[in-house]
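User: I've been trying to design a sequence by hand for this structure and keep getting stuck. Would you show me what you'd pick, starting by listing the structure so we're on the same page?

Assistant: Good idea, let's start from the same input. This is the structure you sent:
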């Protein structure tokens, strides 16, 4: 299949999957806060750990240019970013391993991975963030695999821009510096790349300082002390976090975890420079995400998941596993795996208790099935003055304000319940 036809096929396939399965009503978590900012056209003017400067402003720009409402503008950004990320992963693998079928099937594996699929169907920052991160990885691999030095500069640009989407991406700076170190003799590209990255990174601090904020405001937030709390856990909690991270990995990549591990080993043997660059990035992201003291830490693994997906493709491309390639079509049945897992788990007593406890936002389905159509919405929950068995005040505050705005525009309670 022609490379460009494959790109178009993948993009349209996953755009359709993500759009059809996308939320029916604004979900819980940060979703309503983002929609509220877009609805009010409240441009982000500071760059801290929770403002997501570029994401919010891009969504507002889409709303203004298209005439979409805040919900549809946000949906378009998330779904389109998700489908685009899948195609970039295909292009990365095509550049790295030159094998069409493996590149396609691995991109599909990633596109169907639970964490990514879920975030492509709710209003969140993470698919837009992974798009910029995947372009950063694409640029580095273009240099390693095709010796195209101009991509050294592009790598700096993409990583620098990604910091304006999500500050978590500072965890990839060590990998970027290792990458630059390997190509330090390419002065024509090394110095411009370094200056571009330093400039984009520095502007974050300059923006905040000009508004009277502290230097630390770039990577902190007044909304919580999650980083500090991450260092206050007991040894048993750290051990539990580690096993939970392994469970995330297996649930995202199922049987393909084997090929990911094989790909890591193969890369170490065949290209140590590329191995060390991506290994350092993977360890930094995985380590932080594993022990970060937030309830939804699974989303922070997404940059690592991209790296692991590339390892899966690299492992599948090995001659040693050539006989397995003919069976890589099983990736098409990953959605059925989620249904099977849900069916099995739902029959247990523990799962029934969990389902009851979390029923207010969808129960067990919310946690085990990635698609979000016909979901429970935060607006209907707030309108009906329901109560949750756990603190969600930070969500309902934004929901109440958004409901007031909708009512001022003539929306009835019944219309709002459907949003």
């Amino acid at each position: 299949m022609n490379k460009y036809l494959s790109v178009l096929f993948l993009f349209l396939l996953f755009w359709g999957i993500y759009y059809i399965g996308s939320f029916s009503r604004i979900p819980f978590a940060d979703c309503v806060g983002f929609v509220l900012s877009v609805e009010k056209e409240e441009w982000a003017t500071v760059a801290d750990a929770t403002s997501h400067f570029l994401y919010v402003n891009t969504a507002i720009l889409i709303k203004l240019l298209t005439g979409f409402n805040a919900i549809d503008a946000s949906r378009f950004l998330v779904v389109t970013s998700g489908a685009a990320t899948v195609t970039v992963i295909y292009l990365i693998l095509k550049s790295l391993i030159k094998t069409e079928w493996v590149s396609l099937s691995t991109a599909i594996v990633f596109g169907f991975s639970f964490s990514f699929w879920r975030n492509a169907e709710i209003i969140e920052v993470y698919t837009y963030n992974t798009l910029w991160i995947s372009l950063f990885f694409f640029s580095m691999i273009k240099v390693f695999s095709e010796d195209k030095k101009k991509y050294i500069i592009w790598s700096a640009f993409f990583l620098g821009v990604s910091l304006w989407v999500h500050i978590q991406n500072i965890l990839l700076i060590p990998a970027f510096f290792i990458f630059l170190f390997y190509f330090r003799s390419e002065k024509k590209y090394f110095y411009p790349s370094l200056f571009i990255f330093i400039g984009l990174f520095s502007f974050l601090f300059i923006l905040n300082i000009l508004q009277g904020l502290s230097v630390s405001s770039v990577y902190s937030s007044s909304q919580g002390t999650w980083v500090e709390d991450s260092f206050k856990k007991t040894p048993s909690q750290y051990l539990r976090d580690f096993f939970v991270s392994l469970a995330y990995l297996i649930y995202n990549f199922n049987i393909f975890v084997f090929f990911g591990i094989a790909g890591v080993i193969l890369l170490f043997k065949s290209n140590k420079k590329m191995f060390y660059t991506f290994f350092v990035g993977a360890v930094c992201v995985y380590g932080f995400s594993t022990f970060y003291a937030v309830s939804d830490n699974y989303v922070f693994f997404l940059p690592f998941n991209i790296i692991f997906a590339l390892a899966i493709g690299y492992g599948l491309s090995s001659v040693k596993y050539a006989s397995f390639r003919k069976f890589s079509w099983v990736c098409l049945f990953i959605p059925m795996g989620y249904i099977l897992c849900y069916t099995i788990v739902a029959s247990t007593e523990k799962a029934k208790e969990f389902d009851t406890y979390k029923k207010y936002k969808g129960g067990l389905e919310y946690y085990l099935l990635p698609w979000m159509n016909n979901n429970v919405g935060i607006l209907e929950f707030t309108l009906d003055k329901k109560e949750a068995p756990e603190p969600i005040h930070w969500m309902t505050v934004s929901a109440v304000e958004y409901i007031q705005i909708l009512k001022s525009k003539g929306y009835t309670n019944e219309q709002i319940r459907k949003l």
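That's my pick for every position. To get oriented when you compare it with your attempt: The chain has a mean pLDDT of 91. The CA atoms of residues 182 and 318 lie 25 Å apart.
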